[in-house]
Design goal:
Blueprint: E1 3-13, E2 16-31, H1 44-68, E3 79-90, E4 95-105, H2 116-120, H3 126-138, H4 141-152, H5 161-182, E5 193-204, E6 211-220, E7 225-227, E8 234-236, E9 240-244, H6 251-263, E10 271-276, H7 280-289, E11 295-300, H8 302-310, H9 316-330, H10 334-347, H11 353-365, H12 373-378, H13 391-400, H14 410-424, H15 428-442
Parallel strand pairs: 5-10, 10-11
Antiparallel strand pairs: 1-2, 3-4, 5-6, 6-9, 7-8
């Protein structure tokens, strides 16, 4: 027996299922015995072709629903036919050419939208824009082009690297626009305590040899820190992330951090434990949340203290003495640590004194925020952002420092960081639709 198959698109009246309105044969062929994995499936090309043909039929029926209404939306006049337009639409895997009816009002003479672009402010599906946004936030734009080509089995213009870049920028910008709208509709259970990590990183710029500063913050509840049995590191199950590279004195980061804190349950009774690397601009963000909280504990992130000490090059004898400075700081004994550090500075060669004096100044500026880290560890309390994950590494370095040739401008980088922060947060699935609709309306 020779087996054949036929895949059909059928449109029918739901109230009368037996009444077929449209019936179109999409694909026909023979079913042959498979000899290996190479010929067991239908195949990538045939699957994409099937999606395209079924999409053509489905979209044509959707357009008919729009054309059925012959009353002008602006006046009581009737709409008359006025020729047809060919319109383009790009879906997730396929591109479509559709014939759309032109309609014009007999009374006010206003012509109705007769292309996908004029009807919906765009020519590609929202889900394709979502995929382009997520890929563009994680990979270089040229890598995105290659990935999308493999998925679609076709080199599509809508997926070229310039288009991916454009989508990332418009969707990223729209995320900041909708933040203000979210403040009045946030409704979550109040949190007894929140943990806030504020950090900074530096990225190569297109302007000159100097770098630009990018800042990030992550806020979450202590109970969101969970362990994975198969891994040694903990992870945060629910969090809100914020990032900014704008040269606005931290205004964007502060505003978005406040919204992120509210989404995590910040109230005037919430205690905030804030961890920073010790930079003044980071503490500025922390201070902005203080009036909105019940109380606050500010701590210099132990990870940054440890790294500053580790990166100081000294002869072996002095290096061992520097370890004792670290030991005193670990237990919160700032005065003893400073005494020991001063002794090292006096006795070490001049060429080693620069970094030691910088460490001395760093400790002095942040001495009130250096705590007994050993006691916090024993009590199971957070004392470093590294306990969960590195904010700068996950939001900035993985995407923006992956290739040495990368150079960024603030205008091009900020939308990308907005996207990366949104995707890393636990509410991206609730926000992407609004962000993309806002982006298309803006365009």
């Amino acid at each position: 027996m020779t087996k054949s198959y036929r895949i059909v698109f059928e449109c029918y009246d739901k109230k009368a299922p037996k009444k077929t309105l449209v019936r179109t044969n999409l694909v026909e062929g023979e079913i042959e015995r498979a000899t290996s994995l190479l010929d067991f499936s239908m195949g990538h090309t045939k699957q994409i072709d099937l999606i395209k043909k079924s999409g053509d039929c489905y979209l044509a029926e959707k357009l008919k629903l729009n054309e059925d209404n012959r009353i002008c939306p602006d006046c009581p006049g009737k709409l008359m036919k006025l020729g047809k337009h060919e319109s383009t639409f790009h879906d997730v895997f396929t591109d479509h050419k559709m014939i759309m009816q032109r309609l014009k009002c007999t009374s006010c003479h206003k012509e109705q939208p007769s292309t996908v672009r004029t009807l919906f402010n765009g020519v590609e599906s929202a889900e394709l824009m979502k995929i382009q946004s997520e890929l563009g936030a994680k990979h270089t734009f040229r890598d995105c082009e290659d990935i999308l080509r493999l998925i679609s089995n076709n080199q599509r213009k809508i997926n070229n690297h310039d288009r991916v870049k454009q989508v990332v920028e418009t969707v990223g910008d729209s995320l900041d626009l909708i933040t203000d709208q979210e403040i009045g509709v946030i409704s979550v259970d109040s949190a007894d305590e929140l943990i806030l990590n504020v950090d900074e990183g530096h990225i190569k710029t297109t302007a000159d040899k100097r770098s630009i500063e990018a800042m990030t913050s992550v806020i979450y509840r202590p109970e969101s820190i969970e362990s994975n049995d198969s891994e040694t590191r903990n992870y945060i199950s629910s969090k809100n992330c914020v990032a900014s590279v704008k040269n606005d004195g931290g205004a964007q980061l502060i505003k978005n951090t406040i919204v992120a804190a509210l989404k995590q349950g910040l109230t005037d009774k919430t205690h905030i434990t804030a961890l920073c690397d010790g930079a003044e601009n980071c503490w500025k963000v922390v201070e902005a949340l203080k009036p909105l909280s019940g109380s606050m504990t500010c701590i210099v992130d132990w990870f940054h203290i440890a790294m500053k000490i580790q990166n100081i090059a000294l002869p072996k004898d002095q290096k061992e003495e520097l370890t004792s400075v670290k030991w005193h700081l670990w237990r919160g004994n700032v005065d003893k640590a400073q005494e020991k550090l001063l002794s090292i500075i006096i006795n070490v060669e001049e060429k080693y004194q620069g970094r030691l004096k910088k460490l001395q100044t760093y400790i002095e500026k942040n001495k009130e925020k250096i705590v007994d880290y050993n006691a916090r560890k024993e009590q199971g309390l957070v004392f470093t952002s590294n306990l969960a994950e590195s904010t700068v590494e996950s939001l900035i370095n993985q995407r923006c420092k992956g290739h040495q040739h990368m150079r960024w401008s603030r205008e091009g980088l900020n939308p990308l960081l907005q996207l990366r922060a949104a995707i890393a947060s636990n509410d991206w699935n609730d926000r992407w639709k609004t962000a993309i609709l806002t982006a298309t309306q803006k365009v």
